[in-house]
Write the structure tokens for this entry.
Amino acid sequence: MVQLKIYKVNISKSILAFIFVFFFFISNGQVLPVRLTTEMAENPLAVVENQPRLSWQLVSKESHASQIAYLILIASSEEKLNNDDGDIWNSGRVNSDKNLHIVYGGNPLKNETKYFWKVKVWNQSGKISKWSRTATFRTASLESDLHPTWIGAITKADSHLPEGRTYHTATFNREKKNSFINASDSLARRSIMLRKPFETKKEIKEAVVYISGLGHYELTINGKKVGNSQFAPLWTDYDKTVNYNIYELSAKEFQKGDNVIGVLLGNGMYNTLAERYTKFFVSFGPPTLFFKMKIKYNDGSEEIVKSDATWKYSKSPITYNSIFGGEDYNANLEQKGWNRKGFKDSDWKKVVIQEAPKGVLRSQTAPPVTIQKQYEVKTVKELKPNFYVFDMGQNLSGFPTIKVKGKKGQTIRVWVAEGLNEEGTIAQGRSGKPYYYDYTLKGKDVEEWTPKFSFYGYQYVQIENINYKEDKNKDLPTLVELKSNFIYNSAGEAGSFACSNEIFNKTHELINNSIKSNFQSVFTDCPQREKLGWLEEIQLNGPGLMFNYNLQNFIPATMQNISDSQRDNGLIPTIVPEYVIFGGDFTDSPEWGVTGVILPWMYYEYYGDASLLEKYFPVMKNYVDYLGTKATNHIVSHGLGDWYDYGTHPAGYSKNSPIALSATSHYYY
């Protein structure tokens, strides 16, 4: 089957080079292998399979061109590969038209090792192509290889954080909520900075970092951020799976002599106990860090820098951070140069060794969430003197960036919302309130700030008691610039849609932006009030998602989350990861749980990859068996049914069709 895909690209030097190579190689009617992938990812850093699968695409200037054979070389170094020395695997000529999921057939691969590979093919006339460009993959670590030590500011025992998953806001009054917060140690909810100086005396060849900072982290080496992730690592059930990330660093990231590792930690879904709005109070523990860096020197020697008792910590300028309630930042608490050499950390405290999360440490193979787009102010209204509401022109999932100037100690409060009240103020009533960002100025020149550990769905921004651009009131701070950051998963778009009818084009754009706003660590139901992975999202819209996005490496992570959440009796809950147990139909609904059966099949149908069917067949079978125990004469009658069906009746349970119709249809399918 031939698929036609249209790619929109920015012309860069790399693209121009590719175009040159493309036309040079195929000008003689050659077939050229391009876009090499390992386990369906380009140059992955965390291959967990012992026999990874290799794939490539074919391009040709000729019509009816095809591949009749291939030859793969895998080498332990780029130099050997350039000399056509496949010391790890030389497939020899294989007479096959297959170019997807070629199973590695060489000697056993080593953990934490980088490999280099290339391929050439023969076309239908027997002509051999040039070698493809070099591709790479790095094998992941096992938890036993990493020997993780978790560090932070306070132990779980001393934190007095609530245990369990039944603390959702529907069962809480203000008094009970405050009692939970007051019983815990505030340090257990605090964003902290951790630092570790280390020295290098030899020339570095490369370094590889393995890191998991829970709930979320930002890593710097010598003051420079590593990677472009937001909200890393991706969400999991931390009692079952804990993701860690891998980064390759070149020698230029380091200095000869003193270097400093800096890590900033926030709460995320790992620790949701906080004031303001929250959907539930669930904590797996206080913020915590695992870190390992393997440095390879040019002389062949290695050195390990890891998280241990020698690290130090201090409270960060982020005085409040909640995935549900917002974020506050006091610029007067900044410690300039804290993550660089020469900083005096005598006032910092030694970290404590913390209890490790219960989950298995697994390499994150799904793509990260990143800032994808940025929007400037479209229109602004001054509702009354120094009271502004900004329309950012796009409803999105994300957070603002502000540039301000003013006096030391002045605070700007930034409210965000998807809609407006009749009087023009922002409306959070249906999306969870109160949610806002507070920034306290240090009073030096123009200050810029972007939140790091909280996001919300919004289009409108409301800021009171400010000047906008001009310093009309000398007693108030001035907002110099405002931008919206649109965040979603960086999986990338696989297809696009356009037609001659602008209504359909706009409808597609509307739906697509809604999907992007909910395409986070998991596919969520909404990017503000719940941020939960209700499973029907991904199976009901599965074909649309796969036609539009590259989900090859995202869906396997979803299936791991589903497997982690499955009960011993086979039940797959409606929400995965199941951070909070709502109970009843909101925990057990066939139209939601059956995603654990349908999704691996969709994956096979679309990508031709049976690996999820093979790996998760027990999950699939156990769920179908579970539904059988709930059926009477093969009729399943429980669950949410056709939830929020169309009509003038109140939203909720189906009014147009019986629950048994929907539930049994899914069971039968």
